[in-house]
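Risk register update: the risk of archive-format incompatibility is retired. Evidence:
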Amino acid sequence: MKDFKVNGIVLRAAPFKESSAVLTLLTAERGKIAVVAQGVRKVKKSGLFAQPFSYSEFVLSQSKGLPVCRSADLKETFYGLREDMDRLAIGQYLLEISLLVGEDVTDGSDFLKLLLNSLYLLSRKESGISPAVVKTVYELKFAALSGYGVDPEICTDCGKTAEYWSFEEGFLCGNCATEKFAVIHPVSSAVKKALTHILSTDGKGSYSFKMSEKAFGDLSTLSEKYLEAKTETRFRALEFISKMGSNE
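Archived output:
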C-alpha cells in the first residue's frame, strides 16, 4: 500500500459495513474523492473528523478499491453553524453544491478555498456578512469555477450594453434579446455591478458590496435559478431553506 496526504473537507458521510463510513471529500490535491473511514461509527468523539463540515489533513492508503483513511488531523469543524438553523441549512446547501465538482477536476484548490472561506464567514456571526450574501456569492463563484462564468456588462452577440440575462445565451442587449426569443431576465445596473464585483474580486472582498434590499433580492433569485439551470440540478437543501423562509 502507498500512503499519501490530502487536505479536505467532508461533504457527505455514508454508512459502510457495520461500523465504517464512506466519506466524500473535497480536497485541494485531488479534487473530489471517496475514501473509507474504518470504525468511525463506533466512537463518535474519535470519529468527529468523519462528519460533514469537518476539515482535516488525511493520511490515506491506496491499494485496490477506495483509499482507506489511516489517520486524520482535524483542523476545523465550523461548529458555529450548529448554533443557528438558518446558517446550518445554508451550510448544508453549500456542501450539496460542492458535490457537483466534476470527476475530471484533479486540482480542487480553488473549489476548496471558496468553500472554506464561505463556511468560515457563515459560521461566525461576528464576520458581519449575512448568510444570504454568503449563499449568493458561493452560487455565482462556484458556477464560474465550473465554467459557467458571465460578463454582465456586454451583450454576448453584438457588444452593446447588456440589459437582459438569458441563462442559455448569456447577457443580451434589448435588440438581441428580442431576436433570440429566449427566456430572459431583466437586470438592473445595481445587479450587474454586484455581479461584476463578485466575479472579479477574490477572498473576503467578494462578499463585501452594497445594494438595496430589492436589488439584492433580485440578484439572489437570479443566482439560484442560474446555478440550477446550468447544473440541471434541483437542490434538496435549497427547498428546505425556502420552506424555512415561508414559515417565518
